Every structure is written in C-alpha cells, then in structure tokens.
From TrEMBL:
Belongs to the short-chain dehydrogenases/reductases (SDR) family. This is SDR family oxidoreductase. It comes from Qipengyuania benthica. InterPro entries: KR_dom, NAD(P)-bd_dom_sf, Sc_DH/Rdtase_CS, SDR_fam. PROSITE patterns: ADH_SHORT. CDD domains: SDR_c (cd05233).
Length: 255
C-alpha cells in the first residue's frame, strides 16, 4: 500500500522497459498518475502499459532513445498528445559495460557516458523546457527524479565508467536544481544500492556475487520495491520543499 497521491500528474519514465523503471510504472499508476513508459524496446513497454490499463490505470508506451535529443523531444510530444503536459519525470535509463578499465573498449565507455549522463541531461532539460512553458513557475508542480547509484560514492573493480557516470549524474541533478529553483521545478536524485535487475544480470547467483552479498552488513540484496515510497514522495505535491537532494537507499550496503 502506497500512501502518496499522484492524482492529476502525468509522469514520463525514461528507461521503462526493464528493471527499476518498469517496476515503478505500476505503483505510480496505482497512485493515480498518467504513466508514459519511454524506452527503445517498445514491445516490452507496451506490455506494461497494457497490464496497467487492465488494472484500471492510464498508461502509454512511447519510443525514446535518451542519447538522441530529437527522439527525447518526440517522446514528450507523444505524451502531451495523449495526456497533456508532463509535470513529472523519472530519469532512469542506464547501462553498464563491466570490465577492467584498461580492457574496456572506447566505444563501450562512450555508450555508458552517453546513456547514463548525456541521456539524463537530454531528458531532464527537455522536461524542464516543457514544464516551464506549461507554467511551472506559477504552479510549482515540476518534479524530476533521477535514479543514480551508490557506486557514485564507492570504488570497486570493473565498473569505473558506470560509477563515474553516476557520480556525474548526482552533481548534474544539483546543478539542475539550482538552475530551475525559481522556476517551480524540483530535481532530486535517488541512489539505490544493489537490486536484482536486468542491469546486473546473473551476477548475484555467481560465487562472486554471493560473496558480495555475504560481505554486506545485512547479508541480503534489496527488493525492487525498496525505492517505491521515496520516488512517489519526490514526485508528489508533498515534496514541494525538497530539491537538490541526493538520497541513498541501500539497506546499509555502503556502510
């Protein structure tokens, strides 16, 4: 049971075809939001939108490549055609390319930075342009939530580009929050710990993954719904006074 209301809001979720983005669509719709599932893999997002509709919610799937500004703008336009102005965005799209830095190909590093950092910039800035045009300065209704990662504050083996991109995202969000603070747009980052999603594949079923879990204080991996209440709160009217924050939800994994 979620206690936040998103009635009357239209939320675009970037990276909604799997993992955290796909999961968040259901509780956001249940909280009353019109949900726009934006991703390249529209077959998957269409299935999620259909499931939401069958549960009585409102959702559509739109194609969006976060590394392409034209594609991002077109996704917002499709959302507006169906639901009107988008006042809420969850920037969740992300990829990883694991391996030692001296072995990871340049093209793979570019993919990570383009998706995880440039993609957030393009998504959030397009959202802000639309929100401002729709009158966010007067309503104070703009909400942008960026999904980061605890790797932004850790060092490890095999994920340097990913971790650096997430560190960049956290500061980018604060820059956006400062830039738009008088324009009625709140920007916050949620940094989750490790969750079993498509992004990490079957790592946590391997010997190394099991050893990693055993090394955490609570010796468990987080459930995918661990972020629900915080993300819904940050998207709601109740979060009117919260902007520029970076919130870690990791079950103590980074302690």
């Amino acid at each position: 049971m979620h206690h936040q209301s998103l009635e009357g809001r239209t939320c675009l979720i970037a990276g909604a075809s799997s993992g955290i983005g796909a999961h968040l669509a259901q509780p956001m719709a249940a909280a009353g939001a019109n949900v726009v599932l934006a991703a390249r893999r529209t077959r998957l997002t269409e299935e999620i939108a259909q499931a939401i509709a069958e549960d009585g919610g409102a959702a559509i799937a739109v194609p969006m490549d976060v590394t392409d500004g034209t594609s991002v703008a077109e996704a917002f336009s499709l959302a507006e055609d169906r639901f009107g102005s988008v006042d809420t965005v969850v920037a969740n799209a992300g990829i990883s390319r694991y391996g030692r830095s001296i072995e990871v190909a340049e093209a793979e590093v570019r993919q990570v930075i383009d998706t995880n950092l440039l993609g957030v910039h393009l998504t959030a800035s397009e959202a802000a342009r639309r929100m401002i045009a729709a009158g966010s300065r007067e309503t104070g209704a703009g909400r942008i939530v960026i999904i980061g990662s605890i790797t932004a504050q850790l060092t490890g083996q095999g994920d340097a580009a990913y971790a650096a991109s997430k560190a960049g995202v956290a500061h980018l969000a604060r820059q956006f929050a400062r830039e738009w603070v008088r324009l009625g747009i709140n920007v916050n980052t949620v940094q989750p710990g490790y969750i079993r999603t498509e992004l990490v594949g079957d790592w946590f079923d391997s010997e190394g993954g099991r050893a990693q879990i055993a090394g955490w204080h609570r010796r468990r991996i987080m459930a995918i719904d661990a972020l629900d209440e915080m993300v819904l709160y940050l998207c709601s009217d109740r979060a009117a006074h919260l902007t520029g924050s970076t919130i870690t939800i990791d079950d103590g994994q980074s302690l």
